[in-house]
Q: What sequence folds into this?
């Protein structure tokens, strides 16, 4: 009788594997994807397909070079999740090679070269996105507009989307327009009221479309919270900080600072808060650390949006906070049972 | 009864409970198995000691093993039967290893021993009840099996606020406690009440999870029926609420501080099983021989709870529960969260076995392959200790032990909640266990390296101190020369005859030479010690033994020096009393012999102590011997003082000689202390306090030696007028010197025996023998001319001068020989160290030659005076002889060193070395015999001092020398036998003790015979130095006080050092805490005594100073 010899514990919670976690996060993006597809056309889905294939191919290639079990790691869905997050973040009409490059960089340089899943210090999706944004600023900032506002007065059809992505649609300019954030950023000397009255990107239809997108991601994020895949700390800290900063500056300068509501409902605020900033690998671990980390991202988003060179700051905010996550971790250890206070930093030999 | 406020704890998990299956059937009672296997180690702590042997018949409840230390407990026979064997069997332990078990074959009669319940437990003192519980083998039955009486004792150190009964039983599957509460509610309550009576807690709370409604209802019903004060706290079901720390937090809201015990916050936790066992012990008189165990798992057809005898093999229980062996995949003892797997079903149930989980593959599947940690933080949310498991995993994987420790890895209770929730199937707890053990290992290594560092630093400090000391000595040597001259001139003016001065000078110089030799020896010894410390243990021990022998020698030397001077003075003093006091002097000699014997015994014991430093018996013996020794010394003092006080001019002589003796005794005492301390320091080389004491003592020693020198300078002056007395004293000194050579040779032999070596060394030994025969010849020569100048005093100058020249020539020859030897040494393949030593030796030779010149100067001076001329010549010759001997000794040492090094290189050639050892021993014996001759020859030297009965005296002295030699031989042989590990009986049955006795008797007879003679020879010597006495007396008392103060200070410091040592030991071995604590108390007592005495002495000193 061969008895299994193994160390305790002998039982495990069934079903909740890493792959399950990844699948759930991917599923949680579905409302947002639907909203985006509905508002901005089929490009989103085409991007998703391109990104997913690229991600799996890159992951498999690197894994085989690294002599790892390809199937075992592909089944953890982490590469697919990166691809989904990145594809969602890209403009729906972006040329296919931008998507491929961004996903490839994200998977290869952002994740596998650091040692694969669990070892990447930066959010791979945001690494790919930031690389593409810096390298190809024109296609990366060319967002499609809401159907009622653009010159063509409709969104891209499926074939048009294919054309736009794979061969470059000559009439693409009639479908694109600035995002509300971009529009507000380039209002120049106009005060808020004038800007909202005159700039097309700041018209109700545009703003509402982004509101829908953000609400969809909020719903997905709440789903993740409910599944206890993420904790509330990071998103709440992020959104609260963004809200508070926007509120303070709006109070001081009604004419030139956007309202907190505007900040929370445009751009990638909700998506970033629930899907990007909560990436467990590259974020902080303790609850206190997550609060600081989220708040830091919120602060950076506001700063980049308001004074930086880019209309939105989620990618750079997350990447910058990824840098500081290990440091924050050292200083935000929870108070362990039986200890009077939490240990901070790494003062070896300290005793409490 | 107000409801207990329930708090919460961080984290926790809700695994499937799986408790229902084992509660379907009522409590089962399996039949007796074929054999019961009772491991001696049932729980943490030391294993018990068996009381029975194979073949013994035991009754049910009979003690079969007793506790073996602090954390240990009794073990009882679970049923009546026969002990078939005590052997190694696989036991229920995570390691899967076997351990010693008592195997009992039941006779199926279930015969109880007569039970004697503790009926009057309420009247008994709590400690008695605790002792009773200990005898009943009661241990904690929930977790680690901590002996209950130890836990209860621990609980009494603080005011106990909460007495918590742990009935939470949070692990899935286990229902043993649930069933126990249902079945034995009353017993449980009575047990709790008994324990509460013992601990007197403010609040007694039963903590129970809300998934045991039946048990809760039963408890509440019975408690309200009895109107009991005991409260029931129903806590929500959450793993691990049954963990002691978690339950305490749930019920009291307090956390047990990290690294402390619940008792530190006034909480005591006891398992329900323990309470029932306490009830059974107190009310029924039944020891702990059975327990409730859950048999569960899908592989069992009849999962149930059973009341099972300890020692029942698991396979018997599995059969009872109808196990399907085909389906059985994993056998877990304990719960699925914290239990451990069993390899074999042959292991027995022990006091802590609460569950046997026979799981199928489907029930407890093999874990999924480990995936990468995605730092999802689920573990962190589940951790009941609020740790960061993912960070700990990171640090564990990368072996960043310091960081892991900083993240409080040691607060992990290994509950397994993190592993349970981990989506990547990482066996986190396994990682933590591994890292914990790595950290423990690293800590041990750090302690070791710290010790090494301290040793190195101590060595450096010692080397520096040595250099400083050398420098100081060099300066001191320069300085006292003029002072001495002034002293001597002063003394000369005081002395009756001017001719006395040179002789006195010579004597003082001799003493100095002795001291110098002793000091060089000390230095060499220290060097050896250093070498030993550089190497590791085995070498260390060897070096230690060397050191001990050498130090013994030093003691001997000092003793002999003391004896010599007292002997030189005793005749001088007793001369004044003439024949009136022979009895006293005989007694004195006897006392001295006693003293020497005690010293020898002490040394032997100290040697033994070095070999086995933990033997307290030995220490006791040594201390008693030390007492004896000091008593003997006191006696010697008294006796040697007595004749002096009887002298015609007592005031003149007594103070000086008494003072001298005291000073010498002090020197010896300090020396002994110093050696002890050095030994201690080698045992615990990192003790700074010890080192300070050693350096202080060394200073004291040199001061005392200086005092001796000072004192001995005027002392011979007193004897100076009578030429013959100094002569006899010189002769005695010469004899002593020869004896010293003998001792050195013996030592050499011993060392040779310890480290036999190659041909080169034997060559050197041959050379040494040549040197020695030359020296013997010199002694013979020396003894021959002396009578001549005695008879014709005026004509003495020429021959003595010639002798001196001869001696010089021989010294030079010896030097040349030495150089040749050195050349040979350099030719033979040896390393740089040897060459350095040769250089040192050359220096020594130079020094020696200078000394010869110095010595010959006073000799020439004295040769101008008539009476003392031959004496001076003798002195010169003797010095040369001594120098030769010293040089020979030096070469011997050199050889030894070469030998050691050779041994290090050529370790494998043991057989050849052993042969060489035998040869060396033979040679050593030869040398010893040869040494006996010069002693005889020297004895002849004494003859001219008393020409009237010269022949008789000669014979007697020869006899005496032979007797002494035989004593030494006998003693040596006995020692050898002891070293060979022969028992005391064997030694006694051998001829040596008899021979020793005979020789001692002979010696006694001879010395008592000799004494009157020597007294007679010294009749003429009368000394007058009255002017010194009064001031000296007061100074003496002051000095005495100072010495005593020093001694007490040292004693106090030593006691402190010991306390420190013991404390360290205590920290290292907490299991032997009580005995160490006793030792500490004793040491504290000693320290206190010493300090009290010290204060008294300082007071006395102050008073003495005032009065002065």
A:
């Amino acid at each position: 009788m061969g008895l299994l010899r193994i160390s305790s514990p002998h039982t495990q919670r069934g079903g909740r594997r890493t792959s399950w976690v990844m699948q759930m996060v991917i599923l949680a993006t579905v409302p947002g994807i639907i909203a985006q597809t509905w508002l901005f056309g089929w490009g989103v889905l085409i991007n998703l397909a391109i990104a997913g294939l690229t991600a799996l191919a890159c992951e498999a290639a690197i894994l085989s070079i690294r002599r790892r079990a390809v199937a075992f790691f592909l089944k953890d869905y982490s590469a697919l999740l990166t691809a989904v997050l990145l594809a969602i973040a890209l403009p729906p009409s972006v040329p296919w090679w931008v998507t491929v490059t961004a996903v490839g960089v994200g998977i290869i340089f952002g994740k596998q070269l650091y040692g694969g899943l669990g070892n990447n210090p930066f959010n791979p999706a945001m690494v790919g996105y930031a690389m593409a944004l810096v390298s190809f600023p024109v296609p990366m900032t060319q967002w499609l507009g809401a159907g009622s506002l653009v010159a063509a007065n409709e969104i891209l059809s499926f074939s048009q989307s294919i054309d736009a992505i794979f061969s470059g649609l000559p009439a693409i300019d009639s479908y694109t327009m600035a995002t509300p954030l971009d529009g507000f950023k380039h209002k120049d000397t106009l005060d808020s009221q004038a800007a909202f009255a005159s700039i097309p990107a700041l018209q109700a239809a545009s703003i509402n479309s982004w509101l829908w997108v953000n609400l969809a991601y909020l719903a997905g994020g709440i789903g993740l919270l409910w599944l206890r895949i993420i904790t509330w700390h990071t998103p709440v800290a992020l959104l609260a900080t963004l809200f508070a900063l926007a509120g303070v500056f709006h109070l001081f300068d009604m004419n030139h600072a956007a309202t907190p509501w505007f900040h929370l409902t445009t751009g990638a605020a909700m998506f970033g808060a629930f899907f990007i900033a909560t990436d467990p690998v590259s974020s902080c671990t303790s609850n206190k650390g997550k609060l600081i980390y989220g708040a830091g991202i919120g602060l950076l988003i506001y700063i980049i949006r308001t004074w930086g060179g880019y209309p939105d700051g989620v990618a750079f905010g997350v990447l910058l906070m990824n840098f500081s996550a290990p440091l924050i971790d050292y200083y935000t250890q929870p108070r362990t049972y039986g200890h009077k206070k939490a240990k901070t930093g790494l003062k070896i030999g300290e005793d409490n | 009864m107000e409801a207990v406020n329930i708090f919460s704890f961080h984290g926790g998990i809700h695994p499937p409970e799986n408790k229902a299956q084992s509660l379907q059937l009522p409590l089962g009672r399996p039949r007796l198995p074929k054999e019961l296997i009772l491991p001696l180690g049932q729980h943490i702590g030391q294993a018990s000691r068996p009381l029975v042997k194979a073949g013994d018949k035991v009754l049910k409840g009979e003690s079969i093993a007793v506790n073996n230390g602090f954390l240990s407990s009794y073990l009882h026979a679970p049923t009546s039967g026969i002990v078939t064997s005590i052997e190694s069997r696989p036991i229920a332990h995570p390691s899967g290893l076997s351990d010693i078990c008592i195997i009992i074959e039941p006779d199926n009669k279930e015969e109880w021993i007569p039970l004697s319940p503790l009926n009057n437990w309420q009247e008994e003192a709590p400690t008695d009840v605790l002792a009773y519980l200990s005898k009943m083998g009661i241990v904690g039955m929930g977790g680690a099996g901590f002996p209950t009486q130890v836990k209860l004792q621990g609980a009494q150190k603080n005011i106990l606020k909460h007495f918590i009964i742990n009935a939470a039983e949070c692990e899935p599957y286990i229902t043993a406690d649930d069933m126990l509460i249902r079945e034995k509610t009353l017993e449980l309550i009575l047990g709790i009440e008994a324990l509460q009576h013992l601990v007197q807690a403010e609040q007694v709370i039963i903590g129970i999870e809300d998934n045991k409604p039946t048990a809760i209802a039963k408890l509440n019903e019975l408690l309200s029926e009895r109107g009991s004060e005991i409260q029931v706290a129903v806590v929500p079901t959450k793993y691990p609420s049954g963990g002691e720390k978690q339950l305490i937090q749930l019920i009291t809201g307090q956390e047990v501080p990290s690294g402390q015990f619940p008792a530190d916050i006034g909480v005591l936790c006891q398992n329900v099983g323990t309470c029932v066992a306490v009830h059974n012990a107190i009310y029924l008189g039944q020891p702990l021989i059975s327990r409730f165990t859950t048999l569960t798992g899908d592989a069992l057809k009849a999962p149930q709870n059973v009341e099972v005898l300890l020692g029942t093999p698991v396979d018997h229980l599995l059969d009872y529960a109808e196990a399907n062996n085909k389906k059985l995949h994993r056998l877990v003892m304990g719960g699925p969260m914290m239990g451990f797997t069993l390899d074999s079903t042959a292991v027995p149930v022990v006091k802590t076995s609460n569950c046997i989980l026979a799981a199928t593959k489907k029930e407890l599947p093999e874990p999924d392959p480990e995936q990468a940690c995605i730092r999802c933080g689920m573990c962190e949310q589940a951790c009941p200790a609020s740790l960061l498991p993912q960070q700990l995993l990171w640090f564990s994987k990368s072996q960043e032990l310091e960081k892991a420790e900083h993240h409080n890895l040691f607060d992990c209770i290994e509950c397994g909640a993190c592993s349970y929730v981990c989506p990547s199937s990482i066996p986190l707890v396994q990682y933590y266990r591994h890292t914990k053990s790595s950290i423990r290992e690293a800590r041990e290594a750090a302690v070791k390296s710290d010790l090494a560092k301290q040793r190195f630093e101590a060595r450096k400090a010692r080397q520096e101190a040595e250099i400083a000391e050398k420098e100081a000595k060099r300066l001191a040597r320069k300085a006292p020369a003029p002072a001495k001259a002034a002293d001597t001139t002063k003394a000369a003016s005081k002395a009756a005859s001017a001719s006395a001065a040179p002789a006195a000078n010579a004597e003082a110089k001799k003493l100095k030479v002795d001291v110098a030799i002793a000091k060089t020896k000390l230095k060499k010894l220290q060097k050896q010690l250093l070498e030993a410390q550089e190497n590791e243990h085995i070498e260390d021990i060897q070096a230690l033994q060397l050191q001990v022998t050498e130090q013994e020698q030093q003691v001997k030397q000092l003793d002999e020096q003391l004896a010599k001077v007292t002997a030189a003075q005793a005749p001088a003093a007793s001369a004044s009393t003439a024949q009136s006091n022979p009895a006293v002097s005989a007694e004195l000699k006897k006392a001295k012999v006693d003293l020497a014997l005690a010293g020898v015994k002490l040394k032997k014991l100290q040697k033994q102590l070095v070999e086995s430093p933990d033997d307290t018996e030995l220490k006791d013996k040594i201390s008693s011997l030390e007492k004896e020794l000091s008593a003997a010394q006191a006696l010697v003092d008294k006796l040697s003082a007595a004749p002096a006080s009887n002298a015609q001019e007592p005031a003149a002589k007594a103070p000086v000689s008494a003072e001298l003796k005291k000073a010498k005794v002090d020197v010896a005492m300090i020396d002994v202390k110093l050696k002890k301390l050095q030994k201690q320091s080698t045992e615990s080389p990192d003790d700074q306090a010890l080192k300070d004491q050693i350096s202080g003592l060394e200073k004291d020693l040199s001061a005392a030696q200086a005092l001796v020198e000072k004192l001995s300078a005027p002392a011979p002056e007193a004897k100076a007028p009578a030429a013959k007395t100094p002569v006899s004293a010189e002769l005695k000194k010469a004899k002593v010197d020869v004896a010293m050579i003998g001792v050195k040779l013996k030592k050499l032999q011993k060392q040779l025996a310890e480290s036999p070596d190659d041909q080169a060394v034997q060559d050197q030994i041959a050379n040494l023998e040549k040197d020695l025969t030359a020296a013997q010849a010199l002694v013979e020569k020396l003894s021959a001319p002396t009578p001549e100048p005695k008879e014709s005093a005026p004509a003495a100058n020429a021959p003595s001068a010639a002798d001196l020249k001869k001696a010089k020539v021989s010294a030079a020859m010896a030097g040349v020989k030495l150089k040749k030897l050195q050349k040979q040494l350099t030719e033979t393949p040896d390393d740089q160290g040897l060459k350095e030593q040769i250089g040192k030796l050359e220096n020594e030779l130079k020094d020696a030659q200078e000394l010869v010149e110095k010595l010959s100067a006073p000799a020439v001076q004295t040769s101008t005076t008539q009476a003392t001329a031959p004496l001076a010549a003798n002195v010169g010759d003797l010095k040369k002889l001594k120098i030769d001997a010293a040089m020979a000794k030096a070469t011997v040492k050199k050889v030894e060193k070469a030998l050691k090094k050779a041994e290090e290189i050529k370790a494998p050639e043991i057989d050849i070395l052993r042969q060489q050892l035998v040869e060396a021993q033979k040679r050593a014996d030869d040398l010893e015999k040869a040494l006996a001759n010069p002693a005889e020859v020297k004895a002849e030297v004494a003859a001219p001092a008393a020409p009237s009965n010269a022949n008789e005296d000669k014979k007697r002295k020869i006899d005496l020398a032979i007797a002494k030699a035989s004593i030494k031989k006998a003693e040596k042989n006995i020692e050898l036998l002891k070293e060979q590990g022969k028992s005391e009986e064997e030694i006694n049955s051998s001829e040596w003790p008899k021979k020793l006795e005979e020789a001692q008797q002979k010696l006694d007879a001879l010395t008592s015979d000799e004494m009157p003679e020597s007294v007679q020879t010294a009749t003429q010597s009368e000394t007058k130095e009255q002017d010194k006495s009064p001031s000296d007396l007061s100074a003496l008392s002051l000095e005495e006080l100072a010495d005593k103060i020093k001694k007490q200070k040292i004693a106090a410091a030593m006691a402190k050092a010991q306390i420190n040592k013991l404390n360290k030991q205590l920290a290292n071995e907490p299991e032997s805490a009580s005995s160490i604590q006793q030792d500490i108390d004793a040491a504290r007592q000693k320290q206190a005594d010493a300090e009290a005495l010290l204060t008294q002495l300082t007071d006395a000193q102050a008073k003495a100073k005032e009065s002065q």
Observations:
- Residues 312 and 340 of chain B are 18 Å apart (CA to CA).
- The first strand of chain B starts at residue 36 and ends at 39.
- Chain B touches chain A through 77 residues (CB under 8 Å).
